[in-house]
Amino acid sequence: VQLQAYGGGLVQTGGSLRLSCAASGRTSSSDVMGWFRQAPGKEREFVARINWSGMQTDYGYSVKGRFTISRDRAENTVHLQMNNLKSDDTAVYYCNAKQGLTESWGQGTLVTVSS
Questions:
Q1: Which terminus in the chain has less CB density within 10 A, N or C?
Q2: Which helix (H) or strand (E) holds 66?
Q3: Considering only CA atoms, which of 84, 73, 90, 76 is closest in space to residue 21?
Q4: Is the separation of the CB atoms in 96 and 108 below 8 Å?
Q5: How far is residue 27's CA from residue 37's CA, in Å, rounded to a whole number?
Q6: pLDDT per residue over 49-96, tens digit each?
Q7: What residue spans of 10-84 are helical by DSSP H?
Q8: Backbone angles phi, psi at 49, to 5 degrees
């Protein structure tokens, strides 16, 4: 599966952004899609994931309560609504898809939160 992430940008502390990830290629009901992020000088960090039906979600501790992941199955797109953004949220955000043992990554989209 190919992933195209978009929606990053510059936002002030406390603001909101919505990231989207469009998937193309073969998909299945066992797919799990999600987001990771990597800040400068830090390791890649899990942000959120959602299963194919959209009924199961999981969040990283640092974003729980502020970020919401959702899935549009008709459009084969995953969204990440980010609210109450903090400077620590500044990072390149990567879309991720897991299909069984296969894992795919998008190209990343930069989110910069300024104080």
A1: C
A2: none
A3: 76
A4: no
A5: 23
A6: 999 888 899 999 999 999 999 999 888 899 999 999 999 999 999 999
A7: none
A8: -150, 160
